[in-house]
Amino acid sequence: MQPIDPAKIQPVLKPEVSLRPFPYPFQAALAIASDIDRCDRSTFVQVHRYLNGTRSGLGLPISDSFFGTGKPHHMAYFLEDGRTPSEDAELIRCCLESGLIDTLHSWGAFDFQPPREEFLRPMAQRLMETLSARGLRVSVWSNHGAPINFQNLYVRTRPEFVGDDPGSDYYTADLLDNLGIKFYWGGELVALPLSSRRTFSTVFMERRHQLETIVKNFIKRLLERSATQRNPRMVLHLCYPTTLRDNHSLLQFTRYNRHPSGVWGHPTRHTLRYALDSTALRKLIARQGYQIVYTHLGMPHDGSLPLFPEEDAKALETLADHYHQGRIWVATTSVLLNYWLAVHHLRWSAVAEGEKVVIRIIAIDDPVTGPRIPSANELAGITFYSPRPHDTIIYLDDRVLPARAQPADTSGQPSVELDCPNAPEIDFLAHFSSP
Question: In 169-278, where do the E strands start and end?
Fold first, then answer.
């Protein structure tokens, strides 16, 4: 970088240069987070060819999950013995490489009997070592199922989930770092957009929710039920740092569910008509918020039913239209969570150097790891409003990041954008058929 006369350096004061909340030109963000329950290979392939396909599908970047161990044909890496790779193991590896799978839906589905203590840790260790040896990482964990899934991580309402308790025979949380786990879903659900922009109306709503929560929590403490109280951040923010019982820190996130049975109703690909109906999507755009939609894309497990009934297909087509028209940014679960982390915790500076606007990325003030220099991948999609986007340079350390100028959006401000992450590749799905 050429030195410049300090006299020519002038501070650029906000709001002349500021972070845009979403990649250009989007006004809100959404991911569909699918727990892999009862999903066979054939259904998995059909669903993602329809959702993700750019030639004959909707062209939506939607990811999925897998089990560590499970029955044959249930998208588990190992069979029930915990050591034999399943017939789906190769597909899972390909999906992890492409980003089509980015979530571990716990170590397995133990819904009828709990995992055996002498079985669980060796299996988890084997999965971690197998994936690590292939350079594969998983950044998202989601808890699974019934209360006897003792391997699950901390949940405020489920003291029986003890996978993060070092005093438990089911303790495995110390393996998560080597897997790459940074985010986890414990079980929190809401029916409204999260991390909305702080307009007058959203600040008012936040204050109202906070006051209501304070009153409710005070009453609960009086009733000695504080262990299960809901923190305000769980219903306001997409992500929040959580310290597990072994002092391991992760970013816990809240998912969105809109269902005829209420927020705790069991969602499947045949209930997407409710979560993604036009009213809900318009509200998301108006609030300029985030949603990670909770569902089970492998269910219902009934070959006599259509893959997506007309009403659910129509809801997905509406979402795809919002995405392709630049209104709602649809991303995989891990991409959306990493973007949220970057845009909410990025430290940067901006100065005018002659005719140029120079933006320097300093750090991500990560609430889990502490301040750190981000990788270029973590900054994908980051967008700055700039009065001179064609003359704006973005530095990470001493490296210039490739960026593109964008015209004014609905706010009337032009911007400069780092390229968004690539959508998951799915062409390899053609090589996998039902076993």
Answer: 183-185, 189-190, 239-243, 249-253, 255-256
Residue type, 75: M
- The DSSP letter of residue 229 is P
The answer to whether 238 and 290 are in contact (CB under 8 A) is yes
Strand order through the sheet with 140-142: 76-78, 64-69, 101-104, 140-142, 183-185, 249-253, 239-243
> What is the residue-level pLDDT of the chain in tens, covering all 435 positions?
444 455 555 666 556 999 999 999 999 999 999 999 999 999 999 999 999 999 999 999 999 999 999 999 999 999 999 999 999 999 999 999 999 999 999 999 999 999 999 999 999 999 999 999 999 999 999 999 899 999 999 998 899 999 999 999 999 999 999 999 999 999 999 999 998 874 444 444 444 544 554 454 444 444 334 456 678 878 899 999 999 999 999 999 999 999 999 999 999 999 999 999 999 999 999 999 999 999 999 999 998 999 999 999 999 999 999 999 999 999 999 999 999 999 999 999 999 998 999 999 999 999 999 999 999 999 999 999 999 999 999 999 999 999 999 999 999 999 999 999 999 999 999 999 755
pTM, rounded to two decimals: 0.91
For residue 246, the Cα-to-chain-centroid distance in whole angstroms is 24
Residue whose structure tokens are 């303790």: 171
Nearest to 350 by CA among 390, 399, 387, 318: 387
C-beta of residue 388 within 8 angstroms of C-beta of residue 357: yes
Which pairs from 1-8 meet CB under 8 Å and 24+ separation? 1/395, 1/398, 4/353, 4/354, 8/353, 8/354
Q: What does residue 48 show for φ and ψ, rounded to 5 degrees? A: -80, -25
Q: What residues have CB less than 8 Å from 433, skipping those under 6 apart? A: 41, 42, 45
Alpha carbons 59 and 125: distance in angstroms, whole number = 36
Residue type, 325: Q
Contact by Cβ (8 Å): 408, 44: no
Within a 13 Å sphere around the CA of 87, how many CA atoms are in the beta-carbon half?
11
Q: Identify the burial level of 283 via C-beta atoms within 10 angstroms of its C-beta, where 0-12 means exposed, 13-18 middle and 19 or more buried.
A: middle
